Amino acid sequence: MGNLAEEKATTPSSDPCFGYNILDDQWRDLRESNYYYGQNDIYVEWSGWYRLYLNGETAQMSEWCASFSGCGGDVGLYLNGSHPSLEDGVVTRDVLGTLSVWLWYWWWNSHQCGSYISTSIEVKACPGDFYVYKLVKPNVSIPRPTYCAVAFNNTSNDPCYDYKSLDRPWRATNESGLWICDEHFSWNGWYRLFYNGMNIRMPESCVGGGSCNADISLTLSGPHPQIEEGVVIREVCGNTWNGCCDFKSKPIRVKACPGDYYVYELVRLPLYFCSGYCTDDSTISNTFSSTSPATIIGSSMTVNHDPCYTYNILDNYWRSTFNYRFQYGHDDTLVEWDGWYRFFINGLSAQMPEWCFSYMSCGGYSSLWLNGSHPQLEDGVVTRDVYGSVNDQCSSYRSDPIQVKACPGNYYVYKMKRPTPSIPAPAYCAVVFNTPSADPCYNYNSLDEPRRATITPYYDKYYYYGICDYNVNWNGWYRLFYNGQSVQMPESCVGNGMCGTSNPLWLNGPHPQPEDGVVTRQVCSSTWSDCCGYRSHPIQVKACPGNYYVYEFVRPPFCSAYCAGNFIK
Fold it and tell me: What angle do CA 32, 177, 429 make, to 5 degrees?
């Protein structure tokens, strides 16, 4: 627990509004990610009345249960009832405890709210819009209890006119099949909900688990407010396959606005399972509004200038096609794109990928790539289609085409535009192809592992191979050998379970000729039903004098292995 600083009373000590202790522990925040911190309010020497703060802002005890909210301990304590008004004076409120995720993991109990009853406390409302609490030692039979606090930011502007538009058709209650988790999105402020430009609102009743393209469907536990009520706080229910409101998410604020729409202060969700805020498809109305993007990238461009020399820089490390940490929560439909862009990854010049491969995340949910090759210098500005991949599904979505131009200095610029909003959390991908400092034909690593041969099964009755190149720290170029003899990667389908792995990797295309130099080739992995059921990250290949090949192997996005195929004649 943090320091407890006692303030001197400025009026008679009988009024706790002017003689209280300050309690400012960040880990008490109900609306932060609820990790286990090992705090325990049983061991605190409580002494009188307390006023709560979070990060220096005035706070209050929670009146709402939120599943898995330990608030720094194992059991989060909240008020079983509303706060008093000024005219109520000192009131007594019961205190209940909610199981944290750690205890729930070992003891299944879907409705964890009110699992424990602690000692009642006294509460008083004070002039200046804050509360004081006569905190006492919690019930000692409760595992590591802590008093929860919540702070609601003051809205400097009316959120009815200062909101971000959230037009995500895939959040509708009639949508399912994908697993888009709001735990990975960074919510910030107030949002108005749309469905393809039409007004929509959150549901007020139970929605089945798996709806809204999430595992746990989040709905309001109560009606929307009326305009005269102003900003209200509403509990949020998490509906699962097993029942309604099995989980309670963090409470949010809602406001009814003139023009028959609502705004919501959406917050980041606790890290459990995969939950998502729903929109009710039965409430769609023909109220259209332009989108208010959440992020602005770049600066104004002069359209008659050569974009090769007047471009915005886009250097987001999470756009890398090697970013296999799924769903970082980025969404390029929230960006106000402004003209032409050049890609960088960690300061290195990059380009959009021309290939689909499985599990490409690039910081969002749907990964956007060019459906076609990049232009040559002499081609000038060309237009290319853009496709979106989800998990192992290539071309699941089609976004709006963009313009591309090749520039002197061996780089490309792109006239980016807002992706199609019906695509779930799309993000433009980028890839860096390193230019070798030395000729890889004479600067390579030898890879002589006979178990990579196309004839080696994943396992036989004597030995389990189980090669997993996902766990290998690949670095540079490699030449393949089989017991000392030069071999090459196979160019045709390799059966599932061969090459000493469950997912063998082979080249989906011919090897180059020496005059081709360094080329890029797609890499396929066979499944039990499809020769190219999975696509790995593309690799660079070069044909070398002396009749052999070198490969720039990279980490694949799943457990698989590069195959060593035929001997080179």
Answer: 70
Q: Which residues pair with 389 in a beta bridge?
A: 367
* Rounded CA separation 13/213 (Å): 56
For residue 11 the two structure tokens come to 């009026």
Contact 173, 211 (CB under 8 A): yes
Contact 413, 342 (CB under 8 A): yes
CA distance 90 to 415: 63
The total of other beta-carbon atoms located within 10 Å of residue 146's CB is 28
Residue 411: closest CA among 348, 477, 321, 354: 348
Phi, psi of 273 (to 5 degrees): 50, -140
Which residues contact residue 3 at a Cβ distance below 8 angstroms, ignoring those fewer than 6 apart? none
d(CA 437, CA 113): 62
Instruction: Return the percentage of the chain with pLDDT > 70, whole number.
Output: 88
Name the one residue in this structure whose structure tokens are 């720039």.
Answer: 552
Per-residue model confidence as pLDDT tens digits over 468-510: 999 999 989 999 999 999 999 999 999 888 898 888 999 999 9
Rounded to two decimals, the pTM is 0.66
Locate tokens 């469905």: which residue? 195
Residue with tokens 């802002």: 57
Which pair of tokens denotes residue 520? 């890029």
